[in-house]
Design goal:
Elements (H helix, E strand, L loop, with lengths): L1 H19 L14 E10 L2 E9 L12 E6 L6 E7 L15 E5 L2 E8 L3 E7 L7 E2 L6 E2 L1 E7 L5 E6 L12 E6 L11 E2 L7 E8 L2 E8 L2 E7 L10 E5 L12 E5 L2 E8 L11 E7 L30
Antiparallel strand pairs: 1-2, 2-3, 3-4, 5-6, 6-7, 7-8, 7-9, 10-11, 11-12, 12-13, 14-15, 15-16, 16-17, 18-19, 19-20
Length: about 325
Amino acid sequence: MKSRYLFLILLMCMLVQWTWAQNPILKNSDSNFLYVADPAAEVYNGKVYVYCSHDVDTAVNYSAMQDYVVLESEDMLNWTNHGVVIKPREYSWANGQMNAPDVAYKDAWYYFYFPYNKTQIGVAKSRTPIGPWEEAVTDKITTIFDPTVFIDDDGQAYIYGSDTKMNIGDKGRHVMGAKLKDNMLELDGPWHRLSEETVAEAVHCFKRDGKYYFMGRKGWRTSYWMADSPLPTEKYAVFKGYITKNQIDAPTHMSAIEFKDQWYFFYQRGDVNDGTFYRRSACYEKMEFNADGSIKPIEFTLDKGVIVNEPVTPIKH
């Protein structure tokens, strides 16, 4: 009898591990496979939507990034790939390299924030999470690298990023933040430096138990800061350290969501799907917290049978 119970327990553990192993989200064996990167995850109407930049199959740098893909799931196990849903270069005012996007919802509109020419931020809007998307502006609303938008419980919206590749604050690269007006299309005041430490790119913000978390790429790892307000201007957000290993197959880019009482960490990697530093694939892991609110280290996982590419040498983004 004991052996039977032991067998059942082992079987259940194997099934849990098997059903959880999902990475990468899209696999190159899929009929509609695309290389998707910079995953910005959001929860709308009881579903998860992941807004991704798009690496073309022949990419040898990032200059070919020009459109965006949406992934959707009701259970974090089965994913719908909606393919390319927005092509900002069809707008007369948007051109050049288009990096990491983000989407925010307010007053019955979904707002799609995308960079063009690397750091100029344009906006499209839609009545649904997947489009169709239409121009919300006819020019950039601001300049920042890797924009992310957060709406607080009181309805106030904020935009974050890093001052990489520009000079809008103190010398160096830092976590930057600013208020957005109610129309979601204009800044409501200046940019503020939020971190004492430097950060390369990929800033993301979320809120948990009244605390504000700011993630970013520092070196080749994901680091994070914590603060008591969404725009800490009297003192910098507190640097809490690193939560991922050194990642050299792709620049670290992340987002985090809570879905059905579980937190998830989304990221990208270039060592799967016959990918490279410039042909990346979106992945995700469960994210856990310590009693003091700090984030536990995150381990990267893969589906059984996924072939991992040879290590690559990191290249300047």
